[in-house]
Amino acid sequence: QSSRALLLCCVWWAASSLNNVFGKTILGIFKFPVTITLVQLVFANCLIPILVPLFNAREGIVKADDYKRWVLPLAGLKLLASISSHLSILKVPVSYAHTVKALTPLFTVLISRLVLRQTFSYKIYLSLVPIVLGVIVASLTELSFDAVGLASALVATVTFSVQNIFSKKVMKEKWHPLSLLLVVSRAALALLAPLWFVLEGHTILFGTGWTALGTQSHTVVYELLANATCNLMQSVAAFMFLSMVSPVTYSVANVTKRVVVISSSMAILHNPATAWNIAGMGIASIGIVLYNVFKLGERKAKRPEPLADLTALPEKDEELVV
To answer: What is the mean pLDDT of residues 137-166?
Structure first.
């Protein structure tokens, strides 16, 4: 089982890295971030129904009031997080966008404290200091800094934080992660379709959005499918890996995944970075490690947890599920 877990972890890292690399290369020639989200949702809605029975995840029954209570809000959060995330990597390097997303614990703690009235130890608050400091250093020294890119990354990070907190409450109602993903993806696709046509669809279908690509259109189709495939693979691999290891192992693997995504994007896309820029990324990563260590320590002190709890979503942004 350890070898299988290692393989799944590598697939998770690779899919996450390639997902971001393909997203960046697509947006370099096809500047339609909403379309990328649309393709990912169509792909997910086609394949997740096949995966659900493989994981013995029967689809839950969605009641009429569930749509107003959590389906539509989660679908809206999913769309906002995905579109703003794509917009961020359109404007700034993948490495910088992911450094900004390291602020997820900060917003998670703030939202949980202010909205849900949850309390945290001083260790949790102290672990947020290097995260904020690292992002500030990386922002001040980013060679390709763009205000819209920073704002989009922050919106994506805040939205992911709210989404995770909201999702955990729904998961307590005995929803399987894949079943929840399928329900929310269907609703998100229904919401996005008309919005896509207004924002980008008419330009692509009836304007020059597609014809202007010329011979590059085949490359865009290939990379859109590859991006959608990697996007789904990273969610499924993360879920399978989570079910096989302890929370501590998963947390360490997730921090390493962010480092892998940042490093691979810099190597493949040849993003220039200064020593201070890299130092900022490193400081933020150390803060994430401390946050996870302290968070898991508190959780373990409250109750024994020999294996990862599949009724709870991971703490980070693009880990799983919605």
So the answer is: 90
